[in-house]
Specification:
By secondary structure, this protein is of the alpha+beta class. The chain has four helices and eleven strands.
Amino acid sequence: MEVLLGYPILRGPIRCDMDVSPHKYLVFNKPYGILSSFTDSDGRPTLAQYIKTPYVYAAGRLDLDSEGLLLLTSDARLRHRITDPRYKVWKTYWVQVERVPTEEALSTLRSGVFLKGKKTRPAKVKRLSSEPCLWPRAVPIRYRKHVPTEWLQIEIREGVNRQIRRMTATVGYPTLRLARVRIGSLYLEHLQPGESREMTKEEVDALYQSCFDH
């Protein structure tokens, strides 16, 4: 699978040393229907039922109906770099849309679309040659009989609320399923929904490099 191939070669000085760092870094596969927070006044399912490590917070968020890679860390500096659009950290998503987009629609997504009067930054968009190997979803996808779907890989460097869903809807192809598989140099790999693991020192170093070397 293309986006899961290896890690980039590290170059330049290393900025982080986990041997002395007090911080925690967790990779989590957020399931569908779970909030990217630890509390909710409406009683909806949250990260609290999966993550027991204290003092870690999500670096960005995934919407309730989105799935996949969520980084949780006590490192506020790294969280800020990942979430602040000024630093342009790429995030990669696999997106199933209703119907087969035209090349014109894909070109519009790449160049940017207007959401509430503001144009999104250019995105990297391509068709996936086959359906990606994702886990089964607890809540079935809403299919319409005789209406085809297609999978896209979309990479963006900002985080407007429900951005990808709004982008694809704007060009006429509603999103049916959305899973994030990469943040900077960090890949989701083979975690199942609800599973988490600690990042390795090499992953933290690589993520620092991809987030701070601009």
